Every structure is written in structure tokens, then in C-alpha cells.
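Show me a record, fold above all:
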Amino acid sequence: MESSSHAKGVIVAPTASGKSLLIAELANRLGGKTLVFQPNKELLEQNYAKYTSYGNKAGIYSASAKSKTIDDVTFATIGSVKKIAPYFKSMGFKNICIDEAHWASKPDSMLAKFITEAGVKNVVGFTATPVILRSTMQGSVWKMLNRTRDSIFSKIVDVVQIKQMLKEHWWSPISYETAELDLSGLKLNTTGTDFKHESLIEFYNANELEQKIYLTLERLADYGIDNSIIFFPSVDEAASFASKLDTAEVLHADTPSKERARIIHDFRNGKIRYLCNVNILTLGFDHPPLTSVIMARPTNSFTVFYQQIGRGVRLYEGKRGVTVVDLAGNTARFGKVEDIEFADDAIYGWGMYSNGVKLTDIPLSEIPDSIHAAMMHREEFLANGEKLNKASDLIFNFGKYRGTHLLAVPNHYLEWMVREYSFGSKIGFRKAVSEELIRRKNNNIII
């Protein structure tokens, strides 16, 4: 990213993609002093340790980390610096890097205000999930961070796909296990962004998840898997489960900081085998030896789903992979995390897809059925992909232009499809429509 562009850009970097090295390289290339922000103390300390382990020098400015030292590269939490932006401006800070950029992307956030008051022009965000939820007349929809007024970011600088991480062996292989579940009791909140707390508890009890988790741990232990993070819907359910195991403890947002540090330390050192997690440890928690993740908390948030699985994908000597046990129906809701891609359409820009299903710009309520269709028919459509990719062979079998060749369908309709239509499992169909629009644009063809 060129410093002269003064653009706020996002680098899409999956878990374990080496963000510390990227931050170091950016600081060197951009020149000048650089602030690095992250959403919590744990991630700050983790990023700082990795950055300095490569021989780099840095400071930490964070009350929660009990340090207020400033260097040419300084790691910070926004709560500690929000009132002293002019001070950093006077010290000549020119660049800002934001880890987990989706958490602070809104124009009215504390971080956005700090950026303005500090006069910083070069801003780079790092995130594995460059999307934000917006409420619309049709319900809640995912929008790319660079394609909404609710974000300070204006462009996607670069993307590393999850498939690439697996193909090049930077991620541990993922195996999924799912269960037959009764999802009928789950009710969305008024915004549609996630499920109501009461319905999560009803789901947990109706599906007898406490017993299912015990049986899962016994079965995993038979295969030599003896450590897990388990995601629960509430503190009560987590505490009830943990009380019956000597090697389990509960961690949640209100756990005192000293107790929280002890629990994490004991888990990392094997004294605790099962970490019962309630709405915490989804951002940046780094424990490479982890071999299983158990989801007992349904979520309608793709970001939460991704972050939960991301806790187990890091490589570790002797580790053969990570087992994701889905007792919450999340995989059926979003698809496998490695099937997620961020693609740049030549007509309408960046979007998020799973198995060819567009996840951005359509109501969240429409996504699960499309994901299910894509997973059920993926092989069939991939086998027919070559035929579907040829615009001359493609005839619409639905909608206003049923029976019409793609080549004869008007531009405005194809543009609407690329922007709004959920193509489901029709991977080749989406590609053919996009390529036809590009052909017409390049040749100034209007139909």
C-alpha cells in the first residue's frame, strides 16, 4: 500500500497467516512511526511477543497490559490512548495497523475518532473476516468492509484464501463431526444478527447437549484427543458441565483478570484439559497444541463461527489435525470454513462466498438453504462446470427471462443478479454471468 494514496485498506489474513511479519514489513515499507491496535490485552501481548521475537524493537501502551512505553512501533489498546491522540500526532506517528479490523471499522468508533484526531493518513487493517452486519428492509445482511458506509475502510489490499493455507500446509487439517439436532427452538433476535439467549438455553436442554458433550469427550479420548475448547451458550450451562470434571474450568467475560490469566496458563500447560468458554477466547487466542473444538452454542454470526474453528487450526509438532465437533448446527448454517472465499467481481467488487453461494449483500435468512443446496449438489455442479461456464450454452430456467439465452439477457438484469442474487450451488452459472458482463463492458455492448 503506497503511503501517498492515503487510503484505508484491508488485508484479509486468515488465522496463522503471519500477521506479525506482515506488520513488521509494512512498518518498514511505509516509513515513520507506527501504532498497532488490537481489541484486547491477550492479543496485544501475543502480537508484541511475536513481533519482538524476530529481533524487532517495540513499545506497549496499554493500561491493561500495565505498560506505557512508546517506540517507533508501539502496540496499543484504544481505551488507553483515546484521549491523547494529539500527543501521538506531536510525536510524528504516521501509520496505524489494526489487527482484527472488523471490530473497530465503524466511522463513529473510538478508533476512527482517534485516527482523525491523530492526523494519521496511512491505515491498514488485518482481518480474517472483512465483513460487517447491516440492518436493511429485507433483514440483516453481511457487507464487505470496503463496500459500506458503516466502515472506514475503502479498499481490499490483498487476500490470502483459507484454501491456500490448507494447500500449502500452514493450517492443520480439519475434520468435522456433526449431530442430528432439533433446531426448531432457535429464535433470532430483533436485528437477526444472532439467536435470543432464551432460545439458546432451550436448544441446549432440548438436545441434551450436556450428555452429548460428555460422550464426545469420552470418544475423543479413545482416539488420543485429550484437550478441547468447548463453546457454551451461557455461564450456568458451562459451570454445570465443568463442576463434574476435575480437569475442566469455565472462562467468561466477567472472570476476574488474575483468575483468567491463571486459567489460560493452566490450560496451555495441560493442568486443565477442557476449557469451557462463554463468549470469550474467540479473538486471537493462540494455543497451537489444541486438537479439538466443540461447538455447543449455535450462532448466526459467521465471524463467531470462523473464530471458534480458528482456535484449533494452528500447526504444532506431532499434531495431525483438529477435530471440530459441531453440536450446534453451525456447519450446516455456514458450510465448512475452508469453503469460504473472498472474490473480486469485475462488475460489483468484492464479496464473500461459500461453495459458490454469495453470503454478502443478501438477507442472512436466505443463506442456510443456499449453503445446504451447495453442499448437497457440489460434486454435480463441479462436474458440469465446463458446460455451465460457456455463455453460449447457458439458458435461463427461471424468472423473467426463463428460456432465454444468457447472451440475450439485458445488462441491467445480469447486473442485478451479480449484485443481489443468491446463486446457491450454481458455481458455473455465477461465473458465466460475471464473465458475460465483463465481455460486454470491455466491448461497450449494451443489450
Remarks:
- The chain has 16 helices and 19 strands.
- Confidence is low (pLDDT under 50) at residues 1-5, 381-389.
